[in-house]
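It is worth pausing here to work through a concrete case rather than discussing structure prediction in the abstract. The textbook approach is simple: state the sequence, then state the predicted structure, then interpret. We follow exactly that order.
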Amino acid sequence: MSCSFLRWRLSSSTPPKLRDSMSCSIFLKLDFQLRLYAFSGLRCLSSFQSSGKFDLTDLTHPHTWYPLARRKKRNIFLHVGPTNSGKTHNALKRLESSSSGVYCGPLRLLAWEVAQRLNKANVPCNLITGQEREDIDGARHSSVTVEMADVTSEYQCAVVDEIQMVGCRTRGFSFTRALLGISADELHLCGDPAAVPLVQRIIEVTGDVIKVQYYERLSPLTPLKFPLGSFSNIRNGDCIVTFSRREIYKLKKKVESGGKHLCSVVYGSLPPETRTKQAKMFNDESSKFDILVASDAIGMGLNLNISRIIFSTLKKFDGQYTRELTVPEIKQIAGRAGRYGSNFSSGEVTCIDAEDLPLLHSSLESSSPLLERAGLFPTFDLLSLYSRLHSRMGFHGILEQFLEKAKLSPDYFIADCEEMLKVAAVVDELPLGLYDKYLFCISPVDMNDDIAAQGLTQFAENYAKKGVVRLREIFTPGTLEVPKSHNALKELESVHKVLDLYVWLSFRMEDSFPDREVASSQKAICSLLIEEFLERLGWQRQAKGNYQHNSLLLQQRIQSSMLHKYFPQIKVEST
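Step two, the predicted structure:
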């Protein structure tokens, strides 16, 4: 498969088709409500310039941005402890027993899992993420990704998972917003003990009551004194951890070449549905896929029955440079071994190379460094008001200048918005309104992925030109097929990102991105084709009959999918 499936067109000088109103979807209603509440919070800004005007760049009192939460004296419960300590389980039990509530997680996988758990417990629960919404009749509970947290509603109980991510340089501001802005009688925060002092300082000014509950690990985790040595020492339930896509497939091939094991794989750029499928294959005792090769994507969001974590390396490239893993990263990943209540209730952890063992052992014996600051990012309304003072500047300049001048208290830092600035440079070339540019800038696009970046550019250009973006204008039907190489697999993963972006935009500009159903169906097919490629890698040593049986199953799955009625020419080739 080549990039020919996407027909990228040059931008036009044709004026955009301006719309009089925004989409009335639930997502845009939520965005609009957030903007109104953020605007009302501006009245509480503490700093005036000498002229008597508000200093719009004063972000020293972000708790005042959320007046609904400030009307309550919230009871905040911090559940902190290591992985597999039961902290989140206890918070979710309280959520289940509440009359209304919300769960906020860092990943779609976690939001799905919690929604399923509550519905199974006969507690009707909606699912809301950036790319999907499942409404359940009579639901007074919702499970959401943290970016979708509604700070304009009131709840009896709320749970924010992985609260230590307030310190994340790119997403931390969303956790800060949930911490300060969710209006709940009870707010349960789950995460690493390293977050406790920072959260306590942040909450001091809100008048809320906070209680900390510490947890111990429910099952033992043993750091081994010897490395893996030979790959012949690999055994069922092992998970080998590495930090590049190339190394993951290299290790998978090396393990499988021994003829004793098949490997599932999990890494960040795989579609969430595929990661879930790979995890289920690994967890299934009847499956022949008894080894997992994964990146740090296993650190959260998947229930995995792992006996032993084996680090192939303790270094990773973080997008800027290669560095050693931090203490929290090592502890988070190592802690996935030995899941309480599974066949591997006791966990072990080691490395492939003996030279990595000292760092592994010292990290597991150390406490995670305390978080010093939480992420913060200005609301759209602050940026909008600021833009009125600089009407000749594009959104890139407004954002860049605002962040340079922003004033913060010692407990906060401005989120890294490098990706937003890359998008802003693209949309500033187009005749779009400020809010439209803002939406494109906060969209989940990977600008380091050429195909994904081209997808965003084409969506923005078509929207500016016509006001409506039809998926078929940039997507050529009948060209998807099972990848035949790792490069083709990477390209298909990028296609999935483009379709994911379309779905995200469709929930915020429903009238302008009307092909959500087609895009969602196409995403499902991408996942199926990726899964087939991964399974074929493992079945190459098996009998021809087994392999052909798998291909027939894939064809049946495609034919039963919604996409088949839109794109019946999807190719599934056997070799």
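Step three, interpretation. The two ends are 15 Å apart (CA to CA). The first strand starts at residue 75 and ends at 80.
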